Amino acid sequence: MTKKEKIDTLSEKVVPQQPFGTAERARRNFNAKLSHPLAGFSHTKLRNQGRMFAELHEMGDKSDMRAFELGAVLAQSPEQYDNVAGLTNKEKAVLRREVTHRWSQPWKMYVVITLCSLSATVQGMDQTVVNGAQIFYKHQFGIGDESSRSAWLVGLVNSAPYLCCAFISSWLTVPFNYWFGRRGTIFIACCLSAITCLWQGFVSTWWAMFVARFMLGFGIGPKSATVPIYAAETAPPSIRGALVMQWHVWTAFGIMVGYASDLIFYNVESSTIVGLNWRCMMASVMFPALVDCCFVFACPESPHWYIRQKQYYRAYRSICTLRNHKIQAARDLYYRHTLLEAENSAKLGRNKLLELIKVSRNRRAMLASQIVMFMQQFCGVNVISYYSSEIFLEANFSPPAALAASLGWGLINWLPIKPGNLHNRHIRPTQSPITHLPTHVHGNAIHRVQLLDPREQPPCTSRLHRFRNISFRRGLLTGRGARAIYIHSRSVPVIRPVIWNGARHGNDVVL
C-alpha cells in the first residue's frame, strides 16, 4: 500500500488519497511553525542559540548566560526538564513546583494581580453607581417626567461612557499601548476615570452630565482592553487563563460595590448643596481609581511590550521579578522571542486588518469573539445593572428597598463566580443556556403580567414593558448567538470585542 492510500475501516478497501496541494501544505507548515517554532532542534543547537541570544542583548553575567542556555532547551519541552542535562536538583525542584504549586508566585506577581483586580473593580463601579444616582438627578435636571423626550435623555446620559468606548476610546487602545506601555495606559485611564467621576459630582444640567460621562468613556475603553492583556503577558502559563478571567470576577465585584455605594450615600443630605447624596454616589468611584494610579508603577512593565520595543534587557529584568528563578524567566523570554521571530519570518504584521480576514484562524477567532460579545449585550442582561432600581421602584418598592434589592442582585452576580479550568471554547456552549433561560423566564413573566386585566395588574409602567421587550426578545436570540466559541488568538486584538461590547452596551442602555 502506497503512502497516498489508506484502508477504509468500514469496507476494508484501499482508498486512494489525494495529495495535499501547495497551498494546504504551506498552511500546515505555517501553523506548525507558529505553534512550536523550536520543534526539531537538538539540545546542543538550542544551547548555542540561547547563549548567542543572551550575548547579543547583553543579558548579564555568567549565571544569566547559563540560564539562557538551559532556558532555550526548556522552551522546546518545558515539562521534560528531567531530560535536560545541566540542571541542578534545586532547579528541577523549582520547575516541578511550578506545576504542583501553581499559585506559588513571587510577590510582584501578586502585586500585578491586585492591580488588575482593582482596575476591574473601578470598571464595575463606573457602570453601576449611576443606577441609584439617576433616581435623584433626573428630577433635578428636569428629565424625570414620563415624556418620551425625558426617557430618551435619561438613556442617553446613562449610555454616554459606552458610546464613547464604541466610537472613540476603544480605538485609542493600540496607540496608547504603543506610546505609553501597559502600565502607562492603565495609569492614564484610571486618572481620566478619577477626574471624570469627580466632575460628575459637580454638574447641574443633563447635558453637562452627558459630557462628563462621555469623557468617562476614555477611562473605560483603553483600560478594559489593556488590563486583560497585561495580566496575560505577565502571568506564567499555569495560571494565565485564571488571571485573564479575574477581570470578569472583579468587574462583577465592582458592580456590587457600586450598588453598595448608592445605598451608603442614600441618606446624605445638605441644606446648602442640592443633591449631595447622588453627587457623592457618582464621585465615589474616584477613590479606587486613585489607589490604582498610586501603585501602578510599582508593578513591572509587560515583558512582551519590552520585546516589541526591542528592549530585551529590560524585558529580562521585568520577567525575572515575575518568576521564581532565572531559568524560568529565560525560558519564557526566549520562547516569546522565538514566537515573534516566527511571526516576522512568516510576514505577519504587515497589514493587520487584512490578516483578520485572510488568515483563517484569525478570521474564525474574530467572528466567534464578535458574536459572543455582541450577543452578550444584545440579550439585554446588562440593562439590569443600569435600571434595576427603577424597575423595583415601579414595582412599588421604596427607594431604600429598591437600592437594597439592586445590591442583592449585584451580590448574586458576583458570589457564584469561580474562574473555571475549562477553555473558553468549552465554557461558551455550556454557559449560553444558563444566560438564555433565566432571561427568557424573566421576560416572559413580565409579559404575562401585561396580559392580566388592568385592575389585577401590579404597578407596572411602560418602562417595565420596554424592559420585557428587551429581555424577552433578545433572550431568545442569545440562546442562538452565544453558542459561538470564543477562541483566544494572540493575533486577534482584544480591542475588537471591546468595541462591539461598547457599541451594543451603549445601544441597550439608550433603549
Automatic annotation (TrEMBL):
<dbReference type="Pfam" id="PF00083">
    <property type="entry name" value="Sugar_tr"/>
</dbReference>
<dbReference type="InterPro" id="IPR050814">
    <property type="entry name" value="Myo-inositol_Transporter"/>
</dbReference>
<feature type="transmembrane region" description="Helical">
    <location>
        <begin position="280"/>
        <end position="298"/>
    </location>
</feature>
<dbReference type="InterPro" id="IPR020846">
    <property type="entry name" value="MFS_dom"/>
</dbReference>
<feature type="transmembrane region" description="Helical">
    <location>
        <begin position="247"/>
        <end position="268"/>
    </location>
</feature>
<feature type="transmembrane region" description="Helical">
    <location>
        <begin position="151"/>
        <end position="174"/>
    </location>
</feature>
<keyword id="KW-0472">Membrane</keyword>
<dbReference type="GO" id="GO:0015798">
    <property type="term" value="P:myo-inositol transport"/>
</dbReference>
<keyword id="KW-0813">Transport</keyword>
<keyword id="KW-1133">Transmembrane helix</keyword>
<feature type="transmembrane region" description="Helical">
    <location>
        <begin position="186"/>
        <end position="209"/>
    </location>
</feature>
<dbReference type="InterPro" id="IPR005828">
    <property type="entry name" value="MFS_sugar_transport-like"/>
</dbReference>
<dbReference type="InterPro" id="IPR036259">
    <property type="entry name" value="MFS_trans_sf"/>
</dbReference>
<comment type="similarity">
    <text>Belongs to the major facilitator superfamily. Sugar transporter (TC 2.A.1.1) family.</text>
</comment>
<dbReference type="GO" id="GO:0015791">
    <property type="term" value="P:polyol transmembrane transport"/>
</dbReference>
<dbReference type="GO" id="GO:0016020">
    <property type="term" value="C:membrane"/>
</dbReference>
<dbReference type="GO" id="GO:0022857">
    <property type="term" value="F:transmembrane transporter activity"/>
</dbReference>
<dbReference type="InterPro" id="IPR003663">
    <property type="entry name" value="Sugar/inositol_transpt"/>
</dbReference>
<keyword id="KW-0812">Transmembrane</keyword>
<protein>
    <recommendedName>
        <fullName>Major facilitator superfamily (MFS) profile domain-containing protein</fullName>
    </recommendedName>
</protein>
<feature type="domain" description="Major facilitator superfamily (MFS) profile">
    <location>
        <begin position="112"/>
        <end position="511"/>
    </location>
</feature>
